[in-house]
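Reminder to self: tokens first, then the designed residues, so the page reads top to bottom the way the pipeline ran.
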């Protein structure tokens, strides 16, 4: 009697050629070129996604696909690293009876917090205050985490795209 069946889905039982072909098409490179790069990075013991970063250095492949799709749908996208606060990111926020009011500003975009319908948060760099001495920098980092992080956690979006304000 069989008690357990294990499927290894991903490169062992299934063929990934369609997956990598779609990435090659999206990156506008020949499929065989990307396939060769995947083989080369795997042979070096590296993550196969490094092949995508070789084709487009500095890219974030999965985020780039989503951002491209949002642009195609005329959705305003504001990319930012919370670690850029306060050097190149400013945050103005006020908690009112009607919810959160304010904006986020980067060198290229301004986003009204009331218009936020989605938030993707992944691997931001840490806050830094190199112009401050160590005790003041520690204090500033803590305050930035509460301030910028508080705004991030106050904006909640439902699966239907409706923003919930706490």
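Designed residues (166 positions):
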């Amino acid at each position: 009697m069989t008690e357990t069946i294990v499927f290894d889905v991903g490169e062992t039982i299934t063929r990934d050629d369609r997956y990598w072909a779609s990435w090659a098409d999206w990156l506008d490179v020949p499929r065989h070129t990307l396939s060769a790069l995947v083989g080369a990075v795997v042979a070096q013991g590296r993550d196969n996604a490094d092949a995508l970063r070789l084709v487009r250095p500095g890219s974030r492949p999965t985020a780039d696909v989503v951002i491209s799709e949002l642009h195609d749908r005329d959705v305003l996208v504001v990319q930012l690293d919370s670690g850029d606060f306060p050097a190149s990111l400013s945050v103005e926020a006020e908690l009112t009876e009607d919810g959160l009011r304010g904006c986020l500003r980067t060198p290229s975009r301004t986003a009204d917090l009331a218009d936020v319908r989605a938030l993707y948060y992944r691997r931001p760099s840490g806050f830094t205050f190199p112009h401050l001495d160590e005790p003041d920098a520690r204090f500033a980092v803590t305050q930035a985490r509460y301030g910028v992080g508080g705004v991030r956690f106050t904006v909640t979006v439902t699966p239907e795209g409706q923003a919930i304000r706490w």
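The mean pLDDT is 80.
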